[in-house]
Amino acid sequence: MDAVDHKCPACSASLPFDPTTGKWKCTYCASEYTLEELNKYEEEAAKRKEEVKETKPHKHMDVDEYSCPNCGAKIMTDENTTATFCVYCGSTSIIKNRLLGVLQPNFVIPFSKTKQDAIRAFEKCKKGKLFAPSEFTKKEQIDKITGVYIPFWLYDCNTNASIEGEATKVTSWSTGDYRYTKTDIYNVARAGNALFDKVPVDGSKKFDDDTMDSIEPFNYNDLKEFSPSYLSGFLAEKYDVDDKEAFSRAELRMKNTIRNELKSTASTYTTFNIRNEHIDIDQNKINYVLFPVWMLNIKYNGKMHTFAMNGQTGKMVGNIPISGMKAFLWMVGMFGIVFLIAYLIMMMF
Amino acid sequence: MKKIFIMLFIIVLSFNTFAFATNYAGNPYYESTPHVDASIKVYDFAKLLTDSEEKALYDDITRFIDTYDMDMAVVTIDNNNKGTAMDYADDFYDYNDFGIGDTCDGVLFLIDMDTREMWISTTGKAILVYDDARIDKILDYCYSAISRQDYYSCASYFVKYAGDYAAKGIPDSNRNAYIDENGEYIVTHESIPMPNSERMGISAIIAGVFAGIFGLVSASKHKLIKKATEAKYYLKNMVITNRTDKFVTTHTSRTYTGSSSSSGGSYHGGSSTHHSSSGSSHGGGGRHF
């Protein structure tokens, strides 16, 4: 299609072919181009566009890196902060290295919740969990709650989507002793485009993806140009999932969203089954950022339970383990009470 | 010896007849009711039916009586000396020897050409079987025939649908009702007490479902981590560029429900009853044509 629809390199107006000269002549600025010239200009334009897309982080910095021989986690911080244990497995035998020329993130959202806020949020989140084992949370474990900057990739994307399928409208009514059901069948097509702004995907293998999804969203108004001084007093993880690998998660979420948005425009139908769909996603911009997370790892029954709090908004997530014994006793008790009440009520009749 | 027996038999028989007659002697309702042989079953005083039609009805009625242990009669009149179809039907049934058993169970259908009304009169157990809803439904069928002057079809619809309902037994609307020894229709409000084992069983099922739901809800509260599958929060500027809806085809299907009554009413009150001139209790209903 591009070959047919040329744009004037000088003024961007559309460029029709002039059969008398065998050239493309702009009707606005009267510039004339041969096919070779046009191709050259267009190649250059495409190259420029490519460069815009590649706003990948390019600054570098020097950091202290702690690696954990136990679980393999790699944590970085500035030279003024000392890590004493691994935030993932709690091991204290971590090895410090000076690392030069580490890729520097573009942006950071600084912590706005304190350690005390995080402990309070964790206590609150335990409340009302009837099946939580009583020996689950010991004070010395809670005290290990740590503020960590987690690496995220943010994707700005343009999407183009079209869906097509069969939809039905079902109406029914009764006359006499009969019930009538009328099914109207339609062929429904929808297309649209959408802009996604900073879809986040965590760039850490160690950190559970679903946990990171669950503490979203972060408020992007607080995004600050990155400076290594933000690391002071906090630990940060280095990304170990690159932007290409992480993109599949963002892509899936965007595809689902745009499909649902298009489907929602056909909500007057009783059913709508998509037969064909075509979704194109173009990455406009990728940013490497650090988001603040308070993290707590609690080992229970040999299994690690991770709790995480959004260090900006205070949203706390985590799966509290279920004690089989407690659940059993609660359910037996509930059974007994309901049984008694039901039985007594029935005795009255 | 043999003569004495015959004499005794005649005395007893005449005493019975005498007693039957003396009970109502001087009763104007008794006097104004024609006295008939109760075994004929079809009494076409208005001459609406041919002989063969009467025969056909008689055969169907005999089958009904044998099958359901209730009496049945069909009467047509063109002169009603009692004023209403209900009074005529009740008196005709009471002052002749209709009915089976102590409570004189049976049903009578009257076509009254004088007041232009059909009437179904029920007595004894038939009051339970034919509640108001069923009588209304039977009259619907009968009306469809009588409105085109098809009196034979009208009477035979009555016999047919009365039989159909008798086969279904006593309807739910009368499940707390019974007929006492005087033939009175009585509704009780006490339900039969539930056996203890059933109470325990139902309680256990309720408690089990409750405990199960409680367990699932409580356990789900422990899980706060969910995979994100959407990115709507980050969606800006959605533009719809194509919106096409093409009608392809349509089809309509029909299913029989059979639950709706053409009269549209629903009955919960069982059977309506009244007392006739003889003091006995009757159910029933009628319709003008």
Written description of the protein model:
The complex is a heterodimer of chains A (349) and B (289). With 349 residues, chain A is of the alpha+beta class. Chain A has 3 domains: 1-53, no CATH class; 60-318, no CATH class; 324-349. Chain A is 25% helix and 38% strand. Chain A contains 6 helices and 14 strands. In chain A, the strands form 2 sheets. In chain A, strands 4, 5, 6, 7, 8, 9, 10, 11, 12, 13 and 14 form an 11-stranded mixed beta sheet that branches. In chain A, strands 1-2-3 form a 3-stranded antiparallel beta sheet. In chain A, strand 13 and strand 14 form a beta hairpin. The longest helix of chain A has 24 residues, at 324-347. Chain A starts with 16 loop residues before the first strand and ends with a helix. The mean pLDDT of chain A is 83. Chain B has 289 residues and is of the alpha/beta class. Chain B has a domain at 38-200: Diaminopimelate Epimerase, Chain A, domain 1. Helix content of chain B is 41%, strand content 22%. Chain B has a 6-stranded mixed beta sheet with strand order 1-2-3-4-9-8, sandwiched between helices. In chain B, strands 5-6 form a two-stranded antiparallel sheet. In chain B, helix 4 (85-94) links the parallel strand 2 (71-77) and strand 3 (106-112). Chain B is elongated. Classes of the chains: A alpha+beta (349), B alpha/beta (289).
Features:
heterodimer; A: 349 residues; alpha+beta; 3 domains; 6 helices; 25% helix; B: 289 residues; alpha/beta; Diaminopimelate Epimerase, Chain A, domain 1; 6-stranded mixed β-sheet; two-stranded antiparallel ribbon; 8 helices; elongated
